[in-house]
Fold these 2 entries.
Entry 1:
Amino acid sequence: MGWFDYICSSHIIYPRLVKLFYANLESSTSCISNSFVLGTPISITPDLVAETLGIPNEGITHFNDISKMEALGICLEQPNVNPLMNVTSSHLPIASRIILLLVTNTFLPKEGSHTLPSERDLKFVACVKNGTPINLPYDDDDDEDDPQQFEMRPSAGPSSSSSSRPSMESLLARMDLAQADIEYLKGQMNQFSEGQANILQGQADLRQGQANIIQMLQNAFPQHPSPF
């Protein structure tokens, strides 16, 4: 479904910057996330997520069209399923179990045990198995952590010499941001170096091609020494 490159991707993650983003996340009923990190406003839209991760922005975002019983039948590969059955990952065939691991670790990551899939997890697995295109879901049914525990906004009280100083968390986050900029510049320099190498190789190939053409012409029209 166009998600293979995303599954195989590996990038450096900066947890402190991620924590700041979620701590300052604005409440919204839309699928657009607005926040800021170290004074920089950030707006994340579905199109931006699709472009950044290299995945298609198409397919279903909710699983209302598939029932739990239907999802269980597809996941367990059984036509008749007990609706009261408490399904764990050990009940699933190997193919469904592998897809479930991808769902709970990559697509819809969650804390805690991964052996007890939620209804949404099972429906996600079922859609993958029956070939239904899936988009990133825009809502999360699970209980979210209270963002106040990570709140980094300055207090509204009277300022003092101690409160005006940047916190250690803020300094570490700035270091992470600087490191991310360095990694980005390294990537740009590597692309530039590869581009230069390709240009030089192309020039060398062109010169070799010219030499080959000249040699072919000399072989086809040999120049004999003048008798005079």
Entry 2:
Amino acid sequence: MPVCPQNGINYRQSRKIDVHGVIPKDSKHLTPVDNFALPQVSIEGKARYAQLLTVTNNIFYHKHKGTDLSKRRSLRHIVASLGLIGLTTKTLAQESRVKVTKASKVKEKKSCTVSPPGSGSVKNFNNNCTSCHLCVSACPSGVLQPSVLQYGMAGINQPFMDYKANYCQYECVRCSEVCPTGAILKMGLQEKKTTQIGKVYLEWNNCVVNIENTACGSCSEHCPTQAVHMVEHNGKLTKPEIDPDLCIGCGACEYACPTKPYKAIYVNGNPVHLTAKIPEAKALEVEMQDDFPF
């Protein structure tokens, strides 16, 4: 429309829709709304989609009874699909070179959603974010994803750091450059590199080294601050060891961890962002690729 400087809103030709969910006879290429084809995603992604459908069923069927059936069905699929963004090609590209044959059993103990660096705190982000998704569009790694209930009902659709989708690049401050509302304040690269948006946690009972008795080290290889490093284990292997004070919460370790369905290493968000310890100089020399080499 003429009022939108970014051409984000356009006109399109409308079409008649049967409000009872019946496909018109002349619509040969349409499918019923309850038979939406899932994109090519992992088993984890499909499970997440099913979980989100359950949530949105409650939202749209019970809280919007005045809306016709066809619209409610469409809305629930749209909202549930938001949770799949980043779980397509990104998740498929995440397949690890480490072959895991045993399922992890200990669930991650996450108590706080991770808000973007520059937001200062989850509260500030929730109070100022308008869900314009400029940060989501600008994020080069795709780690910023629209939330469903990660922030609760009040923060639905506000972006969060989704480490199943990807990780926050160490050399990037793009989201802070595009936010128009102050939900994410502009910050320099050096400030970003010491801003702790969350802390790393290690669940040894889920670790591949422990349950498979095999070498891994994916988490340590991709940590830019030495918050995760490897130490000797049983004389022939190495296992991860963490220093949460060095962690900035970028999620590279969590994204790289091959264990399923629960990660052996993960990031729990800081309600109020802190300042991490400055890592040793050699940690800064770690080369962070745009994607993982597995």
